[in-house]
């Protein structure tokens, strides 16, 4: 269940950040409201995941996966360009999350 909480936190944060871009500096009501609501949902579910997942592991996954997903959404829907260093950096983020989860004794619980 803790991983489900973390997944909901990540997806909510990605939606919130995407809507923040669409809110045009929080000047458009609907995307602003969605952004704020999704951030609240994200932090609530992150707090639930932190009951059983070590803080460093949870935050690394939450932020790392969020960065990759936001970058992909921005590339697909907002015209953001992804260059080779950006893709390399995201690959390292994914590798770091995998290494922490698969090999770190900190993630064992």
List the helices and strands and how they pair.
Elements: H1 2-22, H2 29-49, H3 55-77, H4 84-103
Helix pairs in contact: 1-2, 1-3, 3-4
Over all CA atoms, what is the radius of gyration? Answer: 15 Å
**How many domains in all?**
1
What's the total number of strands? 0
Poorly predicted regions are none
> What's the order of the H and E elements?
HHHH
Structure class = mainly alpha
What overall form do the CA principal axes indicate?
Answer: flat
| Termini gap | 14 Å
Question: What average pLDDT do the residues reach?
Answer: 90
Largest sheet composition:
none
Per DSSP, the total helix count is: 4
Oligomer: single chain
β-strand percent reads under 5%
Helix content: over 70%
Structure description:
With 109 residues, the protein is mainly alpha-helical. It has one domain (1-103). Helices cover 78% and strands 0% of the residues. It is built from 4 helices and no strands. It has helices at 2-22, 29-49, 55-77, 84-103. Helix 1 (2-22) runs antiparallel to helix 2 (29-49), helix 1 runs parallel beside helix 3 (55-77) and helix 3 packs antiparallel against helix 4. The radius of gyration is 15 Å and the shape is flat. The mean pLDDT is 90.
């Amino acid at each position: 269940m803790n991983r489900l909480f973390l997944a909901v936190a990540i997806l909510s944060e990605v939606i919130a950040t995407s809507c923040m871009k669409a809110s045009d500096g929080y000047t458009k009501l609907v995307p602003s409201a969605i952004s704020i609501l999704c951030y609240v949902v994200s932090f609530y579910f992150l707090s639930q995941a932190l009951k059983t997942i070590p803080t460093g592991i949870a935050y690394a996954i939450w932020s790392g996966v969020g960065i990759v997903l936001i970058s992909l959404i921005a590339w697909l829907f907002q015209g953001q360009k992804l260059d080779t260093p950006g893709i390399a950096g995201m690959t390292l983020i994914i590798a770091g999350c995998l290494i922490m989860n698969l090999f770190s004794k900190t993630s064992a619980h």
